[in-house]
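Let's sit down with a protein and look at its sequence and fold side by side. Go ahead whenever you are ready, and we will take it from there.
>
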Amino acid sequence: MYDSFAGMMNDEKRSSLFKELKAKMGFGEGHGDEEEQENNDHRGNKMRGNKNAKKERRNIILGWMHNGTTVRTCNGGGARRIEVPNKALKPELVDIGKATFSFGLEQKGNLNDLQFDILDYSRCSMPDNTSVDEIYRSLKLSGYLRFYLASATLGAPATAALGVPATDSL
């Protein structure tokens, strides 16, 4: 117990500060006014969970294959680390790949004479309606995901030239 009036004031002040702190953190009975509560909820949602899962963009490795063979860096290819939106679909990845490997693609001929596809890490064609984020979540991958921009001349057989394994039809 405090004998002095100042000691009692410090005790009351301390308890009121603890109440305010608990209210801001969302522990106590009183949560303050509604505006403070909305700000605290927004901050709590922002900080909750895995920080990387909340990102709007993902880093991928994009390589280039032309007519079924990997194009090396000295020829304008190579593997590039690129940041893409989570919701990027196959057509967007093709456009990003064309922009990334534009110098090497110009050496292979006119872009109108080439057909393009996006292959995944196992060199299978990526589905048109699957986003980059869906692939990351299905694989539960924490590192980089590898894609290939596959290009082929229009005269070459489509599946062999794009590096897609041919399926046996009976």
